[in-house]
Design brief:
With 398 residues, the protein is an alpha/beta fold. It has 13 helices and twelve strands. The protein has two domains: 91 residues; 258 residues, 3-Layer(aba) Sandwich (Aspartate Aminotransferase, domain 2). The chain is globular, with a radius of gyration of 23 Å. It starts with 18 loop residues before the first strand and ends with a helix. The chain binds pyridoxal-5'-phosphate. The site of pyridoxal-5'-phosphate has 12 residues, from helix 3. The site of pyridoxal-5'-phosphate (PLP) has 12 residues, from helix 3.
Length: 398
């Protein structure tokens, strides 16, 4: 293997390639497609479909998988955040949809300071303005309390359009407490759960906790195309999101949306091409994501974890004891996580040198950097193909 693709057609021949031992990072092209995904995309290519019908079909599959009322396939979790914000800003008011990102109604999204991150851009692009609340004082080393639910409550006014919650392990405050505050004021909660799989139960967990909209990445552990995501939530919000993304260039009288998906009687007309049109999703991606979702549900946490663990073990078995690091299998017992092979070095400089050595290999091997453990080289198995295992071993051995 070299660092360039020396086979294949005109699309990729000569393009630099690498081995991704870092996990499903977008900048490294995401992960391998789950079995059956490519076939589903080819199948979609052989037919023409009304895109409202296709998204209504996807909505039923996503509703079944998540327990939500409805769902939508998007071009990623970030696109789901943009569409979710657009849905909360406009509802089913087509005049408001047409004016976004200019707003004339409630347009504030209340968020804990400790939840803010670069993906916020997606919600602001729809026209939302952020209102930051609370502090992550334990993180700052300045106190014992993170943001509390009353912090949100104190910031909710008539201008509030939604609350944003970024889910992760031990996120504070707990989502049910935030939902309770939101419900009391009739404000929807958008949950960014882009990278919260596994465990598989998280597909349903945030919906059960009362989220009005939840977004997941399709190109992370779900095993869908890198440019996909899914959105699950309240039927009226999903309908609004769909109307603001799908091609709506047709005459009102000719438009027959699937009744369970969009209720034409609730609209005063068809909006123009919406703010979400810039992140339109194609039929190949929708078919691919649905196949990935089906495979994800069928495989289950245990089998998935065993597959990843086997990859870690085979790499660990190939590494001769070298004294440069101590290799440790992490998460081997907990089947609801992604296990990892962690190479503990003496210090951050040595770990940096090892990562550099692997990145200089031909083909380059990219590893994960964990800011909490700069003295470690972390090998994440999710994107590693079987044929790449000996190459990774060689790259570590130098
Ligand atoms: C990956 C990620 C996103 C973006 O997801 P895409 O599917 O790549 O658009 C958003 N939020 C968080 C927390 C993420 O980890």
């Amino acid at each position: 293997m070299t660092g360039e693709l020396d086979r294949g057609g005109p699309g990729l021949r000569g393009c630099p390639v690498l081995i991704n031992a870092a996990g499903t990072l977008t900048r490294l092209s995401g992960g391998p497609l789950a079995p059956g995904v490519l076939e589903a995309m080819v199948e979609a290519d052989a037919v023409s479909i009304d895109m409202f019908e296709m998204q209504a079909h996807a909505s039923r599959a996503i509703a079944d998988a998540t327990g939500a009322e409805a769902g939508l396939v998007t071009t990623g979790a970030a696109a789901g955040l943009l569409l979710g914000a657009a849905a909360c800003l406009a509802g089913l008011d087509v005049g408001r949809m047409n004016r976004l990102p200019e707003t004339d109604g409630p347009d504030e999204i209340v968020v804990a300071r400790g939840h803010r991150n670069g993906y916020d851009h997606a919600l602001r692009a729809a026209g939302a303005r952020f209102v930051d609340v609370g502090f992550a004082e334990p993180l700052a080393g300045a106190g014992v309390r993170d943001t509390e639910s009353w912090d949100y409550e104190a910031a909710i006014t008539a201008r509030t359009a939604a609350l944003l919650y970024v889910a992760r392990d031990r996120a504070e405050p707990p989502l049910p407490e935030v939902v309770e505050v939101a419900r009391a004021h009739d404000v929807p909660v958008i949950v960014d759960a882009a990278a919260e799989l596994p465990p598989q139960e998280n597909l349903q967990r945030f919906v059960q906790d009362g989220a009005d909209i939840v977004v997941f990445s399709g190109g992370k552990v779900l095993g869908g195309p890198a440019g996909t995501g899914l959105m699950a939530g309240r039927a009226d919000l999903i309908a609004s999101a769909a109307l603001q993304m799908l091609d709506v260039d047709l005459r009102w009288d000719d438009w027959r949306p699937p009744p369970g998906f969009i209720d034409k009687a609730r609209l005063r007309g068809l909006p123009r091409q919406g703010i979400g049109r810039a992140c339109k999703v194609g039929k190949h991606e929708i078919a691919g994501l649905l196949a990935a979702l089906g495979h994800f549900l069928a495989e289950g946490d245990d089998a998935r974890h065993a597959r990843w663990l086997e990859t870690c073990r085979r790499i660990a078995d190939g590494l001769a004891p070298q004294g440069r690091f101590i290799a440790e299998l992490e998460g081997a017992e907990r089947t609801t996580c992604v296990p990892r092979l962690v190479l503990h070095c003496d210090d951050a400089a040595r770990a940096g040198a090892l990562r550099q050595q692997m990145a200089s290999h031909r083909p380059p091997v990219q590893t994960a950097f964990d800011p909490d453990r700069p003295h470690c080289v972390v090998i994440n198995p999710v994107c590693i193909r079987e044929v790449e295992i000996p190459v990774i071993v060689a790259a570590v051995s130098g």
